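Hi again,

Forgot to attach this to my earlier email, sorry! This is the prediction with nicotinamide-adenine-dinucleotide bound. I've pasted everything inline since the attachment limit keeps bouncing my files.
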Amino acid sequence: MDIKNKTLVCGAGGFIGGHLVKRLKDEGYWVRGVDLKENEFGNMDADEFIIGDLRDPEVVKNVVTEDLDEVYQLAADMGGAGFVFTGDNDSDIMHNSALCNLHVLEEAKQKGIPKIFYSSSACMYPEYNQMDPDNPKCSEDSAYPADPDSEYGWEKLFSERLYLTYQRNHGIEVKIARFHNIFGPQGTWDGGREKAPAAICRKVALAEDGGTIEVWGTGEQTRSFLIVDECVEGVRRLMESGFSGPVNIGSDEMISIQNFTKMVIDISGKELSIKNIEGPTGVAGRNSDNALIKKKLDWAPSKPLRNGVEQTYKWIQEQIEKRESVSTKA
Ligand code: NAD
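C-alpha cells for the complex follow:
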C-alpha cells in the first residue's frame, strides 16, 4: 500500500480519535497520535503515539511538526450530560479545551501546516431553537444570535471562530464539523463521562430480566445518534472537499429518549420497565439538519439507528462480561 500524507490526530486516545486513526491507517496514511492517555480499548494503530498534554505549548511544539500535511484536532475535556450539564466542570471544560485549540492552531501557523480539522459540537446551537422536542432547529445558519445551553457549547463556538480567523488571516485551510451525539463500540460506557446511548445500553445490559431501569428526565427529550463509522466517513469526506463548514455531521433519525430506551430493551430481549428520574438532560429537542452536508458533500449519514444500537449493545455487554470475569478471578 502507498504511504500517503503524514497526519496528526490530537485526541487519538479518545473514542472518535481512535476510530479516526484506524480509518486513516486503513487508507494508507502515516499517523501520529497524541493524547493525555492511551486508548483504553487498545485502539492503538498509530505509527507513533505520544502521551502529552496539549495545554502545554512545549508538547504542542514537539507534536506539530513541519512535515505534517494535515492535523485533526479532536482533543477536548468532554463527557455526557452528567459531566457537561451539572456546572461542576465548567471552568475545566472552557480552560482546557480552549488551551488545546489555541496552542495547536498557533503551532500549525508557525509550522506552515496546510490543513486542519476541528471537531465542534451541536451543543453550540442556541437553546431557544431547541425548546420543542418535536421541532428543534439545528441548521448551520441558525447559530446566531448565540445562546448555547452549556459552557461546553460556548467554548466550541469560540473555537470555531478561532479556527476561521486562522483561515482568514494565515491561509490555513480549515474544516469544521458540528458532531451530533456520536456513539458506538469503543466509546466510554461508564465512569460518569459516558453519554446517553452508552449509559442506557449499560443499564439495560446490567438489569435483571423483569427489573426496572432509571432514565434521566421525562424521556420526552429528543435526540439523534450517529454511529461512529459514519462520523469518520463524514470527517474524511469533509477533509477531502473544497468546503470548510461549519457543517453538521449527525443523523436526522430523531427519537425520544423513552423510545430509544425501549429500542435497547427490545434488542436485549429482556422485559424491563422504565423509571424516569430527575437528572441533567440538556436541551428539550435536538436533531441534525442534513440539508447543507447533502448540498456540499453530496452525502449524508444514512445507516438506520437500530443497526448501530445493536452493535453498541453487544459491545457493551462484552465489556461487562470481561469485567465480571476479571473480578471473579481476582
Ligand atoms: P473523548 O473524550 O473520547 O476524546 C477526547 C480525547 O481528548 C480524550 O482521549 C482526552 O484524553 C483527550 N484530551 C483531553 N484533554 C487533552 C489535553 N489537554 N491534551 C491531550 N489530550 C487531551 O471524546 P470523543 O467522543 O472522542 O470526542 C472527540 C471530539 O469530538 C471532542 O472534541 C468532542 O468535543 C467532539 N464531539 C463529540 C461528540 C460525541 O458525541 N462523542 C459530539 C460532539 C462533539
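The longest strand covers residues 115-121. The domain at 6-183+225-249 is CATH 3.40.50.720 (Rossmann fold).

That should be everything now.

G.
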